Amino acid sequence: MTIYDIAREAGVAASTVSRVINNKPGIKAETRRKVQNLLKKYNYTPNAAARGLVMQSSRLVGILIVDIRVTHHTNSAFLIEKELTKRGYCCIIMGTGAEDEQKARYIEILEQRRVEGVILMGSMFMTEKVKESIKRHLPEVPVVIVNGYLDLPNVSGVIVDEDSGMEQCVDLLWSKNKRKIAFVLDSSSPSNYKKRQGYCDGMRKHGAPEDALWLYESEESSLQGGYDTTMRIIREHPDVEGIIYSIDLIAVGGVHAAQDMGYQVPEQLGLIGVNNSIYGEICKPKLTTLDNKLHELSESAAGILWEGLEGTVKSKKMMLFSKIIEREST
Amino acid sequence: MTIYDIAREAGVAASTVSRVINNKPGIKAETRRKVQNLLKKYNYTPNAAARGLVMQSSRLVGILIVDIRVTHHTNSAFLIEKELTKRGYCCIIMGTGAEDEQKARYIEILEQRRVEGVILMGSMFMTEKVKESIKRHLPEVPVVIVNGYLDLPNVSGVIVDEDSGMEQCVDLLWSKNKRKIAFVLDSSSPSNYKKRQGYCDGMRKHGAPEDALWLYESEESSLQGGYDTTMRIIREHPDVEGIIYSIDLIAVGGVHAAQDMGYQVPEQLGLIGVNNSIYGEICKPKLTTLDNKLHELSESAAGILWEGLEGTVKSKKMMLFSKIIEREST
DNA sequence: CTGTTAGCGCATTCAG
DNA sequence: CTGAATGCGCTAACAG
Predict the structure, then answer these.
(1) What is the residue range of A155's domain?
(2) For a Cys staple, A120 with which of A125, A127, A292, B16, CB 3.0–4.6 Å?
(3) How would you label A244-268 residue by residue, b for 16+ Cβ within 10 Å and e otherwise?
(4) How many interchain CB pairs under 8 A, A with B?
(5) Shortest distance, CA B185 to any CA of chain A (angstroms)
């Protein structure tokens, strides 16, 4: 069903139908009514591709997420989608996969769809290949990275000070007389490296020698990964007094391991996660966590993208501040 | 940058450029090379809207999710997207919101984008309004509902026997000498009503009188909701011996409430959730849960949609069987 | 092997 | 107030 089909049956020209569809003024009430009836009768819906082609605009925003199973990313996407949908844009969410190749590939796919704005979810998009792909395929379109940044004229970033947040976590444990503190990374991402850096800085600030920096990496970013890694820490350092994890989920695995090994949490061993996620609330004892302000991050990102969509595209960098939520595990 | 721009600079016709782009045979190697160089030089990418318009095909599949924050739905979407992307389709995921109006609205949006297939995630899409909207806007396109079904010629459904699964949960508690069993609903959805039905049937099967059917509804589908509802149950029925919840998350809230009230789980009070989610593994004691076969459900849905995309569209109905994962809470 | 032509469905001139 | 003509970027049929 096209406007021509409608036009023919209504005995008018296609342009008249188009005008009715778009609520343009200057149509006789009777004609309008007649066309509208036909529109309804045939459940006519305009073809977005054709319309986008002639209007030179798609009203499409792409949201790229490395792994849509990751709760804190979909939570964020949810907020952003709500915000942008309210403002008349159509959001399409896509899971890219972790490979750099794929992330770059999806940026090209977004160009093919001629999106007018892009949200990149997470620091995992801070790579050279992604940067190159944006420069190549979307040099004029506003792009906002949630918890990341790339130095390009059309790319903005909203980041959170996870490094200094981590320092505060070290401070917190230190204030509870925990001195032997390990750090566990769940995966390789710029955000996680920043956290690790914050841990190291915090430890050094308190005068800890280099060999007191116990750095661990979990095999996988899962409950089991956190469990296994914590077991390893306890085996290698039975005198450990505190462990900071790069995300809540593996921290919860750590809580389980500590309990299975008979360590009292928090008296004997203080545990901290990151994200202020539901996992920390489910856990028993409830997990102390670094709130990295996901909600505010998303709202800011949506706001900045909105500015870019409406006005002139420019690069912007914004920082938010994390905050410790102290619960029962410290 | 269009094929005309490329054609002009290459000194050939646009159709030649098109042929090169689409790897059609019958182009002199030299011409092909010359065009390809220009294509690369300008980072040319075809406009999907224009191509879709002339080819009468979008290679687009829409995945509708009521709330993209719900883990078991995004997990499912992840699997489906992976499957369909592998097969050359571009998946766009959208969060519709819970209102019936919105769900129907998004179906229209999918028609505008001329998608070639649709996945509806969850039984929440089993409503008259959605059915009407499909009939109106997508009567020819293959639609697959994950854990649901609508009686329309182009709609298929993969469902799981959550009702009989629930009966088994009752059996399990009964076998542990729990007789006073309550049931908690986390939200209104056909899937949840089926679960409730299964609970009722199970209780009756064991000869429980009607007034032994303790039906509860949580204010909200959250940890807190499960906690509060469980508190209410304990207050109203201090002699309760078992509680079955429609999803893991609120069951975990129940575990917390039971512990806070000094009930021994599982000795005194047996608790069961549904979904076999990570929440149940985090929880202490670990939650017994009804595995509703999310993974298989998703794979089947992707498979059925694939058949519809490639062959003739028809309606199909498929049933999978749930299975109890017994852990520490029963 | 390549160019010309037409048309996908729509919005927007410009006439009338 | 309405119609005819044009073009958005692309592919395909038909010539040559």
Answers:
(1) 58-160+295-320
(2) A125
(3) bbbbbbbbbbbbbbbeeeebebbee
(4) 115
(5) 19
In this predicted model, what pLDDT tens digit does every residue of A5-42 receive, in sequence order? 999 999 999 999 999 999 998 899 999 999 999 999 99
- H or E element, residue A291: strand A288-291
In single-letter form, the type of residue at position B208 comes to A
Enumerate chain A positions whose Cβ falls within 8 A of a Cβ in B.
Answer: 43, 45-50, 52-53, 58, 67-69, 71, 74-75, 77-78, 81-82, 90-95, 108-109, 111-114, 136-137, 223, 249, 252, 256, 259, 278-279, 281-284
A327 inside domain = no
The span from the CA of A86 to the CA of A194, in Å, is 34
Structural domain count of chain B: 3
Alpha carbons B184 and A256: distance in angstroms, whole number: 28
**Residue B325 domain-assigned (yes or no):** no
What's residue A38's pLDDT? 95
Residue with tokens 């406007």: A3
Taken in order A167, A173, A178, A184, the sign of the CA dihedral is negative
Distance CA A260, CA B328 (A): 15
Alpha helices per DSSP H over chain A: 3-10, 14-21, 29-41, 48-55, 71-86, 100-112, 128-137, 162-175, 190-205, 223-236, 248-260, 278-282, 294-310
H or E element at residue B226: helix B223-236
Does residue B191 fall inside a structural domain?
yes
Q: Tens digits of per-residue pLDDT, A101-148? A: 999 999 999 999 999 999 999 999 999 999 999 999 999 999 999 999
10-residue mean pLDDT series, chain B (330 residues)? 93 94 92 94 95 94 95 93 90 94 95 96 96 96 96 97 97 97 96 97 96 96 96 97 97 96 96 96 95 93 94 90 97
* Torsion-angle region of A290 (φ positive above 0: left; ψ -120 to 50: alpha; else: beta): beta
